[in-house]
Amino acid sequence: MKDKVKKGGGRNQAKAAEATGMTDGKSVVGIKQADDTSFSVKIQGAGVESFELQVHGFWLVQHTVMTLLSRDEVCPRSNLSLTLAGTALDPLVELQSVKGLKPGAILRLAEEPYTSRSAQLHLARVLELLRASGPQDALREGRSPSILETLTHIHTADSSLPNGKSLKRSLSNTKTETASQDAAPPEYLLPGSSDRPLMALLPQSSQPEAPSCIRDLSLSCWNPPPGHRKLQGDFQYITVVTLEGRRCDITSCPKGFFLNRSTEDVFDPRPAQSAPLCHCFTDLLCHISPAFKQTLTTLKNRFQLPAVDVMPTPYHTLSWLGPPCTSRIHKNTYSRLGVDDQQATQAPDWNEEMQAARGLPMSSLEERLQRDRALLQVNSAFVRAATQGAETVVDGFVEPVNGNPEDPAFLWGGLFMNQGAANVMFGGERGRRAAQRLELKGVQAYSDIARHQGLHTLPTAIIDYRGVRLTAQGMAPGLEGSEQDQETTPAQRGLLYGVNSKAQESPQRRRLLEQLAYASKSLSIQRHVVMLPNKYKASLFTSVDAQGLLGADGRFYILDVFRTFPADANFCPEVETESPTDNGEEESSKSCEEGEEKKSCVKESWPESYHSDYGLPKSFPHGLCRLRPELVQAFIQQKHCQFTQRVKEILDENGGFEECATACDSRSTDAVRAACKEVGSVSNIIFEMRFNPNVFSPGVSFPDAESQSTKLQEKLLREAAVFIITHQIPAFVEHCLQNNEAPTDGTSLKQVLHQRGINLRYLGHVTKAISQSEHKEHLRHILRSVIGEIFIRSTRRVFNNFLQGVDVPSCSAAVSHFLCCLLVPHFTPAAVGEETKKKSRRRGRGAGASESTPWSTLTGAELWNLVCQDADETYSIADCLGSGPNHLVEHYGLQKISLLREFCLKTGVQLRLRDYFLDNQNKAPIGPDDVLNIFPVVKHIHMPTVDASAAYHAGLTFLQKGLLEQAHEQLKEAVYLFGRVSDNLHPDACYCHSVLAKVTFLQGKPAEARSVQLTAVVISERVLGFDHANTIQQYALLAVYMFAGGETALAQKCLLRARLLMLTVHGEDHPYTATLDGCIGLVLTGDQSGKFLKNALRLNTSFFGPTNLHTALSQHMLAQRMCSKGDYRGAMMHEKEALAAFTSLFGEEHSQTSCSKEFLCTITKQAVKVERSLRQAGADSTEQSVECITPSSDTVLEQMVLVTGIKRIASNKLQEYKQKHQELKAAVAKELGLDLGAKQLFSLETLNWAEITPDQEMGNGEAAEEKGNLGSESQEVQKIEETSAESAAEVSSNGHVVEPAEEKQQTLDEAESDEVSPGAEVQEVNGESEVRAGGEETDGDNSSTASGETKSEATVDEIKPKEVNGEINVAENVPVSPSALKGKGTWADVVSNAPMANGKEDQDQDPAVNGVADGVTANGATEE
After folding, report:
1. In angstroms, how far is CA 1151 from the centroid of its own chain?
2. CA terminus-to-terminus distance, the chain
3. Burial class (CB in 10 A: 0-12, 13-18, 19+), 474
4. How far apart are CA 770 and CA 777, in angstroms?
5. Which of 888, 889, 898, 822 has its CA nearest to residue 1067?
6. DSSP strand pairing (556-559 vs 455-456)
7. pLDDT of residue 1374
8. How much is the pLDDT for 1215?
9. Distance (Å, rounded) from C-alpha 855 to C-alpha 362?
10. CA distance linking residue 1356 with residue 735, whole number of Å
11. When comparing pLDDT for 840 and 636, which is higher?
């Protein structure tokens, strides 16, 4: 868990943090120390050449040593310490605390004696150097490789430069690229081509394999040392065979390594004559073998990729394609040394490691960074161990520790692994898998609670391998405690909370209940009471399954949290909440009445014709359908809109908002209470939404006293279920209709659906919503992705059952047979059986038994029936999949190669890299030799990067306000912090680099943007996947920056690479393909440029219509292209279409419309000129040259920037909206009796606070402070509105381009302002936010996102699932509208008290659920 400080970065960090208030005081000091205490020292000793090292004063000595060990000058030496003036330095002391250490001081490396373990670690470092990774290593290990270096590498003189300089060569070397490098695109990349070659996806790397330094290196036959040699210090004996053929025996001892006199036949451990004793193993080998010395020098000096290309990723990113050659092309020279097989003497305690990392201090930025890094390292090591353990268990190398064959449990490497019992109540096997998945989500939810140090969860991961799903957890600390804890009672050490706990009241139980109550507020869980089978009542803060434990380590743990989130009422129709009575006669006499009440309740809760229209509620294959946390947040936000609107309506009915708010009667209180009751708030004094996770849970009953609360919870959950169908799914469809960056595959589709809280079990309803849409044809790409995802997910479930009956030797043949049955129409198993039989005979194993095994008799028709049956049961689509794979291809445009890719990624299957022809019915297109491996697919907990994410989102906030300089500083800060925590190998680090590149480009620095974007592409390829949807977009952005720097050939390569990936992942029929084709058409200079531009126009017209901006830009670019070829008639036609679209979108006075008019006039004049010259030439002229209009490179770059969305065209309607908004405010002010100027509506000179503020609680000092803030913020708002009108680059939190905030708000506010009277629009009381009619949120509501970030455009549709917890102290830098400023003591405070987006408040305050104070319970009573 030692923090290895990342080299580079961190410049101007203190200035950025100070300017934006991103961090607290201690953090700013920590960043200042990172810059101000930086100095250089000289390193000498230990046989290395002296060199300079830049260090920081806050570094610990041991961290400095770790940095030294990673330097090329020191590697592979280890077991070193630092000395200053002959005095050894304490490893745990900061450098700035060392006396006498100053800039230019000489630090000497001292060689420390080895132990047996440290000697093994040294040998491991040597082998890591000698095994230098080759270009095919990532594919062999199933990891996603980076293709960027191979793609952009040009065989020139600079390719031999070290440290990746060939990849990031200077622009001066590339601006002179000639047109000869602009090669024509291959045929399979041209528009309309149906070829999808896989060989082009992973081109052959230009880097050679690492040279061999030694013939053999293994443990000696005389190993282990005998007893008398152990007493003399011998650790082990090693045999080396050099390149010269010499065999040597080497002894490892505390002082290092030396050559002994042993031979193959004689054991003589004495040191050889004239043989040195070397502390480093490679020094001895260099002395023994001159060839080794020469090869090692070559190895160290060979081309080095950047660190982000070669460092191991925290988590395994699967590559579904492996090497093209199935046989091993290299031998493992070092496998017999035994270093890789060395196991720790004791299995690691993963739980203790994780809790120790979580318990690290967080008082300063440096401490928080070390804590985040430690958590990431521990969790990634745990996931790797869990992956290896799952493979070992499923392969049959571990025996179960229990005797239950239905639920076997395994212990391996400090891990507890099991499948979980198949509960009939939850749905058997599918219910078991759902419980494992939901348990992981529950652990994630409790782990994410901010500042929640008192309640702990076990490290958890889920591994799917060969059809089996295992849950791996760290070992919970012993509940009985150790011998020294026997004086404590079992109740104090064991189960303290849960329906089965019989623990008596104790201080430990009270503390645990406090922690659970704290967690329930953040998770919006209602405290409730359930009836136990023994008629006892249990008060719960969690689901009925959860258990609270006190471990032997003194920590509180919560387990079994798989039902933490509320139930989905759409899929639990048969569950009725039980309310048993104590008297059996009363129960029988009232059963009919209760049944009638329940039926009427159900009838009232669901909308009319809801069941007939949507077929809901209905049963589901498993009984664990729960709502997603994102849906809960969106539903609470929507409920808050209803609450504020209802309060406004009630107050208007009773005299008006301002009169009720300033009066001293109960009208305001009654309005809030009435609104709380109508929207379903669990509190009657303030808006508060909480949910009972046990409602609609089978087997759970509630006492009679809870009947009213239970009915309210049932109603809320039904409303939430309806909210998914009637609001979230239509909002998703509308989003896809307007966005050209729509989902391209199953992964991106899942991400977008989950952001809106839509579970994947609603894919069938998404399909119906698209089919019933009037824009069905424009949404065909979404329908294609949805149908493909339904098909692959159903196929995966069938495949998991299929693998259960396959033995290990037949896995490759069975998987290939399954894929052939799945993707080849009318496939029969005869061909596979005969092929297997022939191959078995050729290999000398006799006739195979494939015909007699169940898996070999599976036919394509049988498999398709199983898949369709599962799809119908799960997604309620009976006929959508048709009768075979050709139906999916013909009706939906799905590609078989895309389905093959999705299947492999979801099941872990890795195929050999070659081209597959899946329509060949005569021969199996996929053979057993094509299935290289099956890798585990892992789901794990995601560790937070709090400070880095805070800086990243703060940068996005500034970017949305148009403040590029502040955004640039914040994003640079975020990049530095991501590097410190995760070495930039993190998905958010990729998005951060991409946004930073955009901001840098908008600032006019394309070279710097290109350098940053290179890193973003590599991170995306290695962390997300070489063919991930985000990787495609990152390649397109990199092409723009390369073209801006004059690297036209490389820009073309990047765009063609993006198009190749797009064709493989989805196909050509997608809006983003039009974006790529538009850019390719602009970059190409050959005759094929027009093909790409015409295809882009065709796609944009078919997806967005003729008057869309994307279509207009395509028309303009095609007209421009035709002008360059002299076709002015065609250019006039397309430019007229573009002009009509621009006029419709922006109006006659817009600059874009004016430019289009001017260009059309130029084309017309040129066309007339050409026509006149042709007429004058007469019939005698055999050839007449036509003058062409060729766009400049700056024009092409500007169009690429617009097409890719780096910039967007600003609308003049924004200014109209501003003027209209000012007029509306003036009308409201006039109604209030205020004489306000039009230009300074809320200026302090005209606004008399004493006249309009009856509340006298605010002191003079506070009032003056608010005046000052109001004036400065009003000026800042005006400044930002002007800046945003000029800058059109707006970026969302995932690194994608979005519309500017003002443009988004304009459409909403302008539409609503026409319907609402000026008197009902804004009422200003105490500077309080207005409450608008028509269901619109208040400004105060809109500003209630994380840490005070103002988002006036945020509607329920645009809620993101993960708002950053505390964009730390950015509130004073984020401007807000004057109407959003709040006073004190008014009911408007209650009305606009919006819920936190994630249930969390500022870091300095205890969180309250939906604005409820800490001491108030669900019914408004004060907690004890």
Report:
1. 38
2. 41
3. buried
4. 9
5. 898
6. parallel
7. 36
8. 57
9. 56
10. 13
11. 636
